[in-house]
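A further point concerns the way the authors explain their paired sequence and structure data. The central task, working out the structure tokens from the amino acid sequence alone, is never made concrete. I therefore recommend that a typical entry be quoted early in the introduction. An entry of this sort, consisting of the sequence and the corresponding backbone structure tokens, reads as follows:
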Amino acid sequence: MPNPGSLDITDGNTTDGDTARGVSPRAYRRVVLVAGALLTLIVFTGALVRLTESGLGCEDWPTCSEEEFAPEWGFHPWIEFGNRLLSGVVSVGVGLAVLQAYRRSPRRTDLIRWSWYLVAGVVAQIVLGGITVLLDLHPLLVSSHFLLSMVLLWATAVLFFKAKGDHGPPTPTLPPHLVKHSRWTVIATSALLFTGTMVTGTGPNSGDFRADRLGFDLGDVARVHGLTAWVTLMSLVMLAVRMQREGTAPTALQAPIGVAVLQGLLGYIQYNLGLPPTLVMAHIVGAVVFFLLVLRMHLGFFERPFEGAESNELPPRVHPDRDLARG
């Protein structure tokens, strides 16, 4: 598995088994994009399960109950069971990413390896989801479930950006001190997600009235989460200022900064309104979008040699990628 402490991609190699016919690099990127979309969708449906108090709509796993594989019709059981069914669709999506990585022409071992990381992550998610249900939605397990989803999205972003270029060494488009600043911004964003799960585990939206809550004071954990949000926003703003001073337009930071400001406003509003499920859902969607935007920003500060196999494609205008992991 990848080293979680590293934030850069390494080179991939073309294998000797390349064939003249197979999946084109462009088609493979579409497969990875679909897998990423499915992995994003199941984050939202998982949040829906929790916010509709449907987390124990099926009290057993992998079947819905000891007597039934699928539940009888009912709102809460089918919200939960529907999320389980969607995990099967996600499994197909990441499975196709592996299969097409082998069929891609030219074949690259780094893409094969990273596609298998997605499979391992989805299997871990399925097992963790089952344990979470069997242990009555313990908040630490629910938080881990969400954070593992974010790791999967990170791995998918790495795979996608790797697939956009050739297997040659990536080159930073910013000076080393700005690249380091960008990496720290990714780390700050990860800390923001973590503290957000602590607020979730302490607050009222547990997924079921029988679920335990973390023993923290909600106001205290909300303040810690708010502090990490300010640190992340300030890191983005400072990076934009430093880039501007060095003659580089900080275009890639506009969307992350804008979403960060909106997320902050929404966070304060939902907290003062008592964390209503609708606003919490909007905040979760915003958190995932923000995370993906920060990943795209960081990966965009690296460029790789353009894949020569696709001579009919023009190189992307935005600096594309290197990434967030040694693979």
In short: Residues 25-303 form one domain. The longest strand covers residues 171-172.
